[in-house]
Design brief:
48% helix, six-stranded mixed β-sheet, six-stranded antiparallel β-sheet, binds adenosine-5'-diphosphate, single chain, alpha+beta, rod-shaped, 639 residues
Length: 639
């Protein structure tokens, strides 16, 4: 350090008082420019210097930027300052030795700047540099800038006391600058958040891709203070970016913009941004070789920024911001903000296209459903037609059955009558052989009559011609009568017919003839399918509002796989087991219909070689419409 005693002695003020004054001054504002102005003026005054200038390192730490210069008296030196700024920051000349020197962390004192090799003579003359003192601004061991004091009149070199005072003030100033910067950063972050929030709000309020991108372009331009902006979508196969939406484009640009996809290969700035997946900018487009694209040259804007839109690691396009006249200085914060905006835009595009895909899927689903519905209704119509046709055929078949049965019955009755008469001896005595043949004819005629009767019954039931005429009668009485009739046949087969003691007399409200037909049928089957020595039992019970009839036997039983079908028309258990089965397979079907026509129901339980039980119900009182009916599962089996 090179200091010498001053000719005009410097009267050092009381240091704590100066520091307090400066502290008060700097705490009055958080605006950096305002703060630097106050600090520069107060420092010059406190240190007895004519001028105080403040330099700060640029955010990237690559340049020392002149920020403020003030005289002790507060007198303005604007023209000189502008000139100084221009000379100090002239990039083509490189870093001036004096600037490099004051960027160091040690104080510099120059009593005679005119002789210093660090200072260009032009400066010494222009800024009237008679003495110079530079102290670093250090905060947490990092140099954030420099405080430079200088004298414009002769014979006022800086003393050690002044150097000490300036250094003390510098450490306080560094703290104040950092606070102001922190505040500024906080403000900037806040405004970044607000921008991102605004972008997010505006893009999430629509799923229309075009509208989304127009909004994004606008928000990005407003946030970056750009004049115009455009949103491009990437066609990676063709290696071009295609314009999709724009904001604030001058009319004469609008049309070429809309029509011209930009080739990525011939626009290195865009290529770089896409390769790095990060925003890339240019403050001086005309001089920037990365912007030597013919279309860009024609548009002749001053600054630009391209922020790629990336979603799920995929490049889908980019935002292009333009400053027409002004050379824009880009800060890292701004680049980061534009990166955020572009990524948000990419997400919005992704959402919008996902939505469109879903929409398209829905449309195609709806189409498919409509097609299937149409196919189904065609099939339904065909089914209905064939159902009607089948019903018609069924009716024709029933008619046919009815007619044929009628026609068959008349000659059969005549045959049977004649045979009966012959067997009764009306036509004279019969030889043993004649008797034998005629008896066989009689048995077969009886069988035929039974079969024709079954067919007639079925046809009548199916045509709805069967009329039920209910009356009150004693079910026990009817059952006893029928058992008495059948007893001779049963005993012939070595079977016992029993009526279990039950409620006597059990009165029911039903069609006596039809109940008789049902009972005869069930008892007939029981006798037919029970071997000699077995028992056929009828049990009557009441279970209000129904009477219950159980016809059980100790016969062959029905195999479980056959049981579910025995009430079907024409169904007969496979021969072999029951060699006796020679009916029509209509009996149980008719029984079921007759029981149900009277408001009852029927079910069967059976166990092979142990016998079968048929249980049916009959109402005891007239049934009110839709009144309760018992419903059995038609068949059951016990094992
Ligand atoms: P079918 O007139 O041929 O006897 P049904 O409809 O009356 O016809 O009976 C259907 C089938 O059910 C018969 O072929 C017979 O095999 C079986 N079946 C009916 N009742 C009994 C019973 N009590 N014991 C064993 N099998 C029976």
């Amino acid at each position: 350090m090179n200091t010498k005693p001053a000719d005009t002695p410097f009267h050092a003020p009381d240091t704590p008082t100066v520091l307090l004054e400066i502290a008060q001054a700097v705490s009055s504002t958080l605006d950096l420019k305002e703060l630097l102005k106050i600090v520069a003026q107060r420092t010059a005054a406190a240190c007895g210097a004519d001028v105080c200038s403040i330099f700060l390192w640029s955010p990237l730490g690559d340049r020392l930027v002149p920020m403020m210069s003030q005289t002790a008296s507060g007198q303005q030196m604007d023209a000189l300052w502008e000139e100084f700024k221009r000379m100090a920051s002239h990039s083509r000349e490189g870093t001036l030795p004096i600037i490099a020197a004051i960027g160091q962390r040690t104080p510099i004192v120059m009593d005679d700047p005119a002789t210093s090799p660090l200072l260009p003579a032009r400066w010494v003359e222009q800024f009237r540099l008679k003495a110079l003192l530079s102290v670093p601004l250090i905060r947490q061991d990092v140099a954030i800038g420099t405080l430079v004091l200088h004298q414009m009149t002769d014979d006022k070199p800086f003393t050690e006391v002044q150097v000490l005072l300036a250094s003390t003030i510098a450490s306080q100033v560094a703290l104040a600058i950092e606070n102001a910067r922190l505040f500024q950063t906080t403000q900037e972050r806040l405004s970044e958040c607000e921008t991102l929030l605004a972008v997010s709000r505006s893009v999430s309020s629509t799923l229309n891709l075009k509208e989304t991108l127009v909004r994004v372009a606008r928000e990005a331009a407003v946030a970056a203070c750009a004049d115009s902006s455009g949103a491009y979508l990437l066609d990676s196969e063709q290696e071009v970016i295609r314009p999709f939406a724009s904001y604030n484009l001058p009319d004469w640009v609008l049309e070429p913009f809309q029509q011209t996809p930009l080739s990525v290969r011939t626009f290195p700035l865009v290529r770089e941004a896409l390769d790095r997946m990060a925003p890339v900018c240019s403050s001086d487009v005309p001089a920037d070789p990365r912007c030597a694209h013919p279309a860009i040259r024609r548009l002749a804007f001053q600054s630009c920024l391209f922020a790629p839109m990336v979603v799920k690691e995929q490049l889908i396009g980019g935002l292009f911001l333009v400053w027409w006249q002004k050379s824009h200085t880009f800060t890292p914060d701004q680049l980061r903000l534009m990166d955020g905006v572009a990524r948000q835009a990419a997400m919005a595009i992704d959402n919008a296209s996902a939505y469109h895909e879903i929409e398209a899927l829905n449309v195609s689903l709806e189409d498919k459903i409509a097609k299937r519905t149409h196919e189904l209704s065609t099939i339904n119509a065909a089914l209905e037609a064939s159902h009607r046709r089948l019903q018609e055929l069924d009716r024709v078949k029933s008619d046919f059955l009815l007619n044929v049965s009628h026609e068959l019955r008349t000659p059969l009755t005549a045959i049977k009558g004649s045979v009966d008469n012959m067997l009764d001896g009306i036509t004279g005595p019969l030889s043993e052989a004649q008797q034998r043949y005629l008896t066989r004819i009689q048995a077969n005629a009886d069988r035929l009559v039974r079969m024709i009767n079954d067919l007639l019954d079925l046809a009548r039931i199916e045509e709805g011609r069967v009329q039920v005429i209910p009356t009150y009668f004693s079910l026990s009485g009817l059952t006893s009568e029928l058992l008495d009739t059948l007893r001779p046949v049963a005993s012939e087969q070595g079977l016992a017919l029993q009526l279990a003691d039950g409620a006597d007399p059990l009165i029911v409200y039903a069609d006596r003839d039809k109940v008789g037909q049902v009972l005869m049928n069930l008892l007939g089957n029981a006798i037919k399918f029970t071997p000699s020595g077995g028992i056929v039992n009828v049990e009557l019970a009441e279970e209000e509002p129904f009477a219950i009839v159980r016809v059980s036997d100790t016969g062959d039983g029905i195999p479980p796989e056959e049981l579910p079908h025995i009430f079907d028309k024409f169904y007969q258990v496979q021969l072999g087991r029951q060699a006796k089965a020679k009916g029509t397979g209509l009996g149980l079907s008719i029984v079921k219909s007759l029981v149900e026509l009277q408001g009852g129901s029927i079910r069967a339980r059976s166990q092979v070689d142990h016998g079968s039980t048929f249980t049916f119900t009959l109402p005891r009182q007239p049934l009110v419409q839709a009144q309760e009916t018992t419903t059995f599962a038609d068949t059951e089996q016990t094992r």
